[in-house]
Design goal:
Blueprint (H helix, E strand, L loop, with lengths): L1 E4 L14 H8 L4 E5 L10 H7 L2 E3 L11 E3 L6 H6 L5 E4 L7 H9 L3 E4 L14 H20 L7 E3 L2 E3 L3 E5 L3 H12 L3 E5 L5 H7 L3 E3 L10 E2 L2 E2 L4 H17 L2 E4 L14 H5 L6 E4 L16 E4 L2 E5 L8 H19 E2 L2 E2 L6 H6 E4 L2 E2 L2 H5 L3
Parallel strand pairs: 1-2, 1-4, 2-3, 4-5, 5-6, 9-10, 9-14, 10-11, 14-15, 15-17
Antiparallel strand pairs: 6-20, 7-8, 12-13, 16-17, 18-19, 20-21
The chain binds nicotinamide-adenine-dinucleotide (NAD).
Length: 376
Amino acid sequence: AEVLILRERNPGECRVAATPETVRRLLARGLTLQVEQSAGLAAGYADHEFETAGARLVAPGPDLGAGVDAVLCVNPPAAEVLDQLRPGTLLAGLLSPYGAIALVEQLQSRRVSALALELLPRISRAQSMDVLSSQANIAGYKAVLLASAALDRYVPMLMTAAGTIQPARALILGAGVAGLQALATARRLGAVVYVSDVRPAAKEQVESLGGRFISPPEQEERPAEAGGYAKAASEAFLAAQRQQLADQLALADMVICTAQVPGRRAPMLISDEMLAGMRPGSVVVDLAVAQGGNCAGTVCGQTVERHGVRLIGGDGLPSSVANHASALYARNLAALVEHVLGEDGFQLDQEDPIVAGCLFTHDGACRFPDLVSGAN
Ligand code: NAD
């Protein structure tokens, strides 16, 4: 079977869905690989490295995608590329399935079998394919570096001839994959770290990484959990949580916001009034900014100042660590491709929980219409 690796077309996207390493790995499984020219350039993987690994370079143009059996991408491919795919072609990538009405129409009419990696179940068997985790990990790490660089203070405690400097205090909202990596990174830099999450199970993980857990507010109604994910909290719960966080914010030097609820607007946890209570010179990095943000006033991809606090809209951070982000993404994708590769080409067994979980469109139909219409 023939697999095509696309060059990403979204502005600012530097990642690529395969590396020379995964090209070799997939070739060894009997696949043939086409790589679009310059696909890996922005991530530090040159065309000749893909060729040396055994891929065939293909030029962009009207025929791109024609006749291939599978397409691997980071973001959804351009409409012109999807138009070239023959029925039954496998497509795998981060397809932003929530509300993706136009994309779904096209995938259905082309009868593409699309695997949306956002929907991959978070089960042990799928861990090697879990791009949400590999990329969130990078975002959490980079968020702390950005905050530290923008901060007007040292992060570690220092004892100098000029006296002692106290360690910076970090507050992390959300103890998922990004939040836990932010915690670990801030600890390595020497910060004292506080972490808030609505899932009580997060306490043990936070403490095992040397963080101090801020328990969710004592409310009768606590947001439910499903499959390890938080469900949307009520406005009353969020109000109680904001009240609880106000004192913490006043003491924080850096705040890393990672709180999210899949398919929903991110919970608003820091109001403008709460920002006014923070120390001028402190920094907030909002990784939830593309989902509406955890902090008032953050702007996607920009740094703005509010009440003397620097607000960094941390969108697309994995792409800013493009070489390693691609290396991990490509391995996740290679594991998924190997998983669905049968004796005779690709086989999508809908009884398999991994395929059942993330097979978004198949045979001209969308398998998760509620998620697209926003009714979930
Ligand atoms: P996510 O990006 O959806 O959310 C980040 C965090 O925000 C979550 O921990 C969530 O509980 C928290 N959150 C939501 N509302 C909040 C609020 N109002 N205040 C504070 N925090 C709030 O989560 P994720 O990083 O994708 O991880 C989701 C879960 O999946 C976690 O339990 C994680 O450990 C688990 N996981 C399992 C596997 C696996 O078993 N293969 C792999 C990865 C992650």
